[in-house]
């Protein structure tokens, strides 16, 4: 049985529609990440699951029960907010116990459960303090403890790590992953950080302007993006896009554009002679080549990343980037040549942006 | 210490002196005989007397005035708290299309010159038959306290982060519990300021009290002002003593309020 089902869900604020006819089903124990650019409706969707935002149309059910008209407290969910949202006037103990008190759990059991949860998250030394006396990372752990203690059917996270510094973020990400491994609670996690999405998710839901662009496991989204938006959004550095014209040859296809002609077998794609298409190739898939390079130009920008260097060069009036090992890094303004494998390319319809890949 | 800090402290000390000295001088004068007060050179050393204070406390009119003031202002502040705080919370958290108008109306009560409010009120109470009674004064003052408390409490409630209240909703609490257990305590410090301000405002209120009472509901400010109308020979000592009496309750009120707040919000040391 699915833990969460959204069918034909709409959300409108007055005349502006924020979520449009959204259908999504999340399995039990699954870790689903909502990913998308700022303002695409991730938080709104999550808050609709939580019951903090009215559902304008359609139906949301959690654990097989339609929850459209249920209060947040009756939905069997727990939520972790971006800025922790701890109760500033209560001690850490009371913060964690607040939800249980509502459920009229006996005091002795509350103490036992708070102790157990705070031990798991390493919070025992701070139980008597107020939230303002904790560091950001500790506060976030209290917020997670507060969500955990209710043993909810569903965890909802809204960018829980975005207020932490990079190092702590990595640490907490690992903790959240470990927590999910041991608790197996169904989780919906909102982020705009690709790395978080890639590392945590069983499935990623990629949103744009309130519409789902693609749903799938991280590897599938990365390797087989359904359209140009997904391809461009996922992966850093960003994918190179080159407009090409498709041509038929005896035993394969040619792609002409950006000052070069590329011959491919093209078995994996739906192609037609004369079509306009967009060729997508990720910077790490470009390899330094000798005389037989497919793409060539002069390196006009070099960004050093440590192990790698990002080389940007112009080819046929088009800026293209290649991520190469730092030791292969060319000098600025030197001529460069790159090649790539046919398996690495993506092709999209030039007008609709949809992938031309055969399913 | 750097000179900048030194100058800063000096200015602070001067400002503090300017604020406190008149109060101190009044308190001193309350302990002086009239001859010590009306000397050309101010006298710091004198034989103190309790006669002024005794006179004030011994007068029935002063005691009834004090009683009227305490009852009228206390009840009005209580009503202001009970009605004003929930109203402010509702406007802050559940704004509807009248929220802006409500806020403006509440504020407009304070824009009008007090006379413009007092004269119609006087007519109303005369017609209702409650003129010159404490209930009339309490209800009138409640209008003031409710408007002031609402006006100050709306931003106080708005400054409570929304997510905190949402977290409580997710924890299973309803709107009323969230108001009691989250919004009120988190905003308590600013709210206490609002309540104290409303108390001081009605405690010092003069014009409305003057117009709504002729004999049976006189408040302390009215009684104190009458003390100075006893002919050419102004009884300075008695006046000063009545000022001291007038200033004590607000100070007490503030002290109790801030003490209560401190006990609620004391940081726990671990
Ligand atoms: N109360 C509101 N009234 C009108 N529009 C709103 C309201 N709340 C959100 N929106 C709009 O809904 C859209 C989605 O907002 P949402 O907060 O869900 O974005 P998000 O994907 O979480 O973005 P971010 O990554 O910046 O948090 C935005 O375009 C926003 O302007
Ligand atoms: Mg958001």
Question: Any overview of this molecule?
Answer:
In chain A, the strands form four sheets. Chain A has a six-stranded mixed beta sheet with strand order 6-7-8-3-9-10, with helices on both faces. Chain A has eight helices and 20 strands. In chain A, helix 2 (92-102) packs across helix 3 and helix 2 packs parallel to helix 4. Chain A has helices at residues 42-50, 92-102, 107-120, 136-148, 166-183, 194-200, 218-223, 228-233; strands at residues 2-13, 16-27, 31-35, 57-62, 65-66, 77-80, 154-158, 186-191, 203-208, 211-216, 240-248, 253-257, 260-264, 276-281, 287-288, 295-304, 308-315, 318-325, 335-339, 346-349. Chain A is an alpha+beta fold and 359 residues long. Helix content of chain A is 23%, strand content 35%. By secondary structure, chain B is an all-alpha fold. Chain B has helices at residues 3-29, 34-37, 51-58, 60-93, 99-111, 114-128, 134-158, 162-170, 175-203, 207-212, 220-227, 236-265. The model of chain B has no long low-confidence stretch (mean pLDDT 87). Chains A and B meet through strand 6 and helix 2 of A and helix 8 and helix 9 of B. The complex binds adenosine-5'-triphosphate and magnesium ion. Magnesium ion binds at residues 42-43 of chain A.
